[in-house]
């Protein structure tokens, strides 16, 4: 490299952060449209795909939801963080677990919906949802017993998820657990689903299980449990 080169690590980092922010904005827009029931304009050939028909009818939802509680059921009085929570607090039975739930979400529509309704459901257990991305968690070190991040890892590159893993490690208590899911490209529906999501506004990364497990190991975490689904594989890891 010449002495006159303008390259610097700081420039590279800022460029990377800018790319991440652009992608975060794209994904937020895609889900804001869905939460507000705004129409998506798709090519006829995409609408003709069986997976689109399943998505439109709502039948696909049950196949893409990762039941994190099957491998890491929240315990009474534990502090749990749901990263990228969407509107999940209105769906899964968090009140039955008697755990304290916090959320962080990039969709302002989901954040506002949950903050207006969550406390009505249980003001003691629901601790509110922050607006923010997964690589910058708005919480102090060692706050949580359990962190959850399902349904969105495939929208971001592996280098981004390395940053997410580092942040999750920071906010977990010693011995705390992290549960998240990955899109497994070996599943028969994976490629069609990736095409559909791209046309809905959020490009999907198809990364191998082997590459995912490399970054888990590099983060210093150990895989405790893996649960295979129709599209997503669910991981429970411990740092």
Put the structure in a nutshell:
This protein is of the alpha/beta class and about 240 residues long.
Strand order of the largest sheet: 3-2-1-4-5-7-6
The number of domains: 1
Tally the helices: what do you get? Answer: 9
CATH class category name: Alpha Beta
Mean pLDDT: 91
Number of strands: 7
| Rg (CA only) | 18 Å
Main attributes?
Rossmann fold; alpha/beta; disordered N terminus
Structure description:
- The chain has 239 residues and is of the alpha/beta class.
- The protein has a single domain, classed as Rossmann fold.
- The protein has nine helices and seven strands.
- The chain has a seven-stranded mixed sheet with strand order 3-2-1-4-5-7-6, with helices on both faces.
- Helix 5 links the parallel strand 1 (79-83) and strand 2.
- Helix 7 crosses helix 9 (209-218).
- It is globular, with a radius of gyration of 18 Å.
SSE diagram, text form:
Layout: H1 9-35, H2 44-47, H3 50-57, H4 61-64, E1 79-83, H5 94-97, E2 100-105, H6 108-121, E3 126-131, E4 144-149, H7 158-171, E5 172-183, H8 190-200, H9 209-218, E6 222-228, E7 232-238
Parallel strand pairs: 1-2, 1-4, 2-3, 4-5
Antiparallel strand pairs: 5-7, 6-7
